[in-house]
Amino acid sequence: MVSRQQAFAISAALGLLCSAGLFAQGRQPDAKAQAAAAQARQVEIAASVKMVDDVAAGQAAPNDFGIAWLREDYLKAGPNAEYVPFIVTVDASKLAAGKFSLYWRVVAKTAAQPAAAAPAAPAGARPKYAYEDINVDVASPAPGSAGAPARIARAFSVPAGAYDVYVAIKEPASTQKNAPPPKASVLKHSITVPDFWTSDLTTSSVVVTERVDQVTAALTPQQAVERPYALGPIELVPVADTKFTKKSELATFMLIYNAKSDAANKPDVMVEYSFCQAAAGNEPKEGEPCKSGEKFFNKTNPQNLNAQSLPPEFSLAAGHQLQTGQAIPLASFPEGSYRLEIKVTDKLATKSVTRDVNFTVGAELRE
After folding, report:
1. Which residue among 193, 219, 248 closes a domain?
2. CA distances for 322 relative to 94, 286, 318, 346, angstroms
3. Are 175 and 249 in a shared domain?
4. Could you count the other beta carbons within 10 Å of the beta carbon of residue 68?
5. Contact yes or no for 227/250 (Cβ under 8 A)
6. Residue 63 backbone phi and psi in degrees, to 5
C-alpha cells in the first residue's frame, strides 16, 4: 500500500518497468520472484493510469463493479490546502478476484498559468495533476449490512477550487493464455473545494454520522490510507443517507474555523441547533429560523464554546480544533421532512454562519 501524499510519483513507478530486471541479478534465493512481483505491480499501475487517461480523453467508462460516489467532506489541512476524505460504493459480490487496484486522480478544472520563466516540460512527460495516488493488491471490502453496497474510503489534499475526481478499480490481469480482459470500473465526479484559509468565520462539512469511534492506538500508514475519517483520537462513520426512523438519532460533527480569540487565546462561540419541518403554505414567524414552506419544530439548548466550557489547555494559537456536534433522538419527531439549521456565532467578532442538514423521519427501517 502507498501512504497518502500530496502527490504520488506515478512517473517514477512507471519507470521501474524498465529496470525491474535488475532484481533478478541479486543473490537472494527469491530474487526472481521479487522481480516478477515488482514488474507485475508496475503493470497494474500502468494499466490503471491508462484506463483513467482513456476515460478522461472521452472513452466510455467501464463499470463492472457498479461503482458510485457516496459523499465527500471538506476539512482544513496544511497551509493553503484542504483535506477531502471521500467514499465510493461498489458491489462487493462482483469483486471475485479478492484483490484489486485502486487509483484516484484529482484534476483541476482551471489549470494555473505557468510562470513566464518556467522551463518547458520535456517531450513525453506525464501531466502533473493536483493529486494522484494508487493502492495495489487491495483486499476486497466486506459487503455492507442488509445488502447495502460495500464502501471504499480514501482522501486527498488540494487547494480550494473546482476539480474532477477520477476513481478507478481494476482486477489483476490474468496470467492465463487467452484470458478475458480484467474487470474494471472508472468513476468521474466533480467537486468544488471551499477555501478555509481566510479570516472569515467558516466551518468544515457537517458530517452526519452513524457513530463516532475512539481511536485507541496509532494507525499504521496503510490504515491511515484506508480510514481517512480517522481524525486524531476519533473516527467518524458517516451515514449512507439521511433517511431515519423514529428509533434513530441524528448525530452531527463539525469543525469551526477562523474564530476570533481573546487575550488568553480562547474563543467565545455559540452554536444553535434549530429544527424546521416542511409544511406547505407556511410562512416563517418573526424570530424563527424557518423558511417559507416550513414550520418551526424545536431547538436544543445552545452550545457555548468559551473559556468557561473548554479545557484550560485549549488554545486557538496552538492550533487546537474547535469542534461541535449533537446527537438528537428522533422519537418525538413526527414523520416527515426536516431541515436542521446550525447557526455558529462568533461573539468576539460579531459574525455568524449557518449550515443546513436536510433529513427525513419515516416509519420504515433505514437500509
Report:
1. 193
2. 42, 31, 12, 12
3. no
4. 15
5. no
6. -150, 60
**Residue 277 shares a structural domain with residue 314:** yes
CA distances from 89 to 4, 92, 187 (A): 20, 9, 11
d(CA 153, CA 157): 14
179 neighbors 186 (Cβ within 8 angstroms): no
Written as tens digits, the pLDDT of the chain (367 aa) is 333 332 333 333 333 333 333 333 445 557 887 787 788 789 899 999 999 999 999 999 999 999 999 999 999 998 899 999 999 999 988 887 678 999 999 999 975 544 444 455 566 678 899 999 999 989 888 877 767 899 999 999 999 999 999 999 999 887 788 888 899 999 999 999 999 999 999 999 999 999 999 999 999 999 999 999 999 999 999 999 999 999 999 999 999 999 999 999 999 999 999 999 999 888 878 888 999 999 999 999 999 999 999 999 999 999 999 999 999 999 999 999 999 999 999 999 999 999 999 999 998 654 4
Instruction: Name the burial class of residue 231, with classes exposed (0-12), middle (13-18) and buried (19+) by CB atoms within 10 angstroms of its CB.
Output: buried
Joined together, the cell numbers standing for residue 233 give 483520537
249 contact partners, CB below 8 Å, separation of at least 6: 327, 328, 329, 330
Q: Which domain holds residue 237?
A: 202-362
Residue 305: burial class (beta carbons within 10 Å; 0-12, 13-18, 19+): buried
Cell, residue 204: 468544515
Q: Which of 140, 161, 193 is the last residue of a domain?
A: 193
d(CA 106, CA 162): 10
Q: Residue 129 and residue 106: Cα distance in Å, rounded? A: 6
Helix, strand, coil percentages in the chain from 3-state DSSP, rounded to 5: 15, 40, 45
Q: How many CB atoms lie within 10 A of CB 240?
A: 18
234 and 177 in a common domain: no
